[in-house]
Amino acid sequence: MKVLVVGSGGREHALCRALARDPKVDALVCAPGNAGTAELAEPRPLDVADPDAIAELAVRVGADLTVIGPEVPLVAGAVDELRAHGLPVFGPSAAAARLEGSKAFAKGVMTAAGVPTAAARDHTEVEPALADLDEFGPPYVVKYDGLAAGKGVTVTDDRDAAVAAVRASLRGPDDRVVLEEYLDGPEVSLFAVVTESGAVLPLLPAQDHKRVGDGDTGPNTGGMGAYTPLPWASHGLSAEIVATVIRPTVDEMARRGTPFTGLLYAGLALTTRGPRVVEFNVRFGDPEVQAILALLSTPLTDVLSGRRAPVWRSGAAISVVVAAPGYPAAPRLGDPIRGLAAAGALTDVDVLHAGTRRDTGGQVVSSGGRVLSVTAIGSNLESARGSAYEAVSRISLAGAHYRTDIGEPSRMRHAADVHRADTAPGEDPTRPRKKE
User: Fold this and answer.
1) Are 260 and 194 in contact (CB under 8 A)?
2) Do the domain assignments include residue 113?
3) What would the pLDDT profile of 144-156 be if each residue is shown by its tens digit?
4) Of 23, 129, 228, 409, whose CB count within 10 A is highest?
5) How far apart are CA 436 and CA 433, in angstroms?
């Protein structure tokens, strides 16, 4: 097969790594790609927001399969355009991609499907939104309705900050803001491949770290690191989420005449009332996918097509994001990155590029806020964590910053304590939960 991967971030580098290991894949193209993907796949220039350009490129390179990484082309209708050309593609239609493209739409689907989620209201005008803001009370949760590259969510105890977020979300005539109740408990990401027949193939659950600083401090980002599996979560958690969240959502989308196929991501909070959906995405999440695909044994094309359910290698994986100075507000770009070879030389470590390019002299420099996703696997999370941070220490990027607490044991003990509060007295949280 010849596979075209659309995108230029750490997610796309992880997809290219997995596809390069797939015995069915003998040629890869990544458009536009980055300095890391260029080592595995032929780079091609591409405007990822242009569905026509994506379809034209797939025809030109003779792609047997196109895998679309980012959300922007999915919401813009790239899958529809590719299908109109009779080209095989992995991803949802534009109508189905509204699950990510509009938080208000996703809330409506969840309500109709009976999916547990936070109470919410959406508004197009500032004053009614501010009235609801006070009704929900702190911690305030304010979400821009459309796409915002993972940074359109404000969670704060500061009312002034929440008011500012509401006003920033309603600058244009077509803007909408969603206000939600705050959900307590550790967050979990569950991805599932949904086939054309409606079958659901869940991947390993992972935990993302959205805040920029240690201890979940500072503003939200696109993600500063992730790990999988979750040693503190119940063994039946994935099956429970499929039964209560993924399956009802897929069924509701089919009932509406907009069947969902591709990758459905549920970001959840494990509250004291059980799992609650925080958001849906319609593509592989970054940086969770970097860790998840590192443990995949099954050829990726078999999983994407639904031919085989995923099989996982033993152990654990962790991904630590190295960010440019000033990220997420105003990242400084163009700084040289050194030590990549030394970091990648460590056993079971992949230095996945996210925001990189080669300058005119051939040197790898930063080109985005999240620059690298340093991903390691080990026999357990402690081993993987040690390898990942050792690799990070070998990389030099002026002013770079990263979180030091990804997969930290004390954070996992806290998550286990909160998760345990949702179990019956004497029940082991690592045992499958009984249905009520």
Assistant:
1) yes
2) no
3) 887 766 557 888 8
4) 228
5) 9
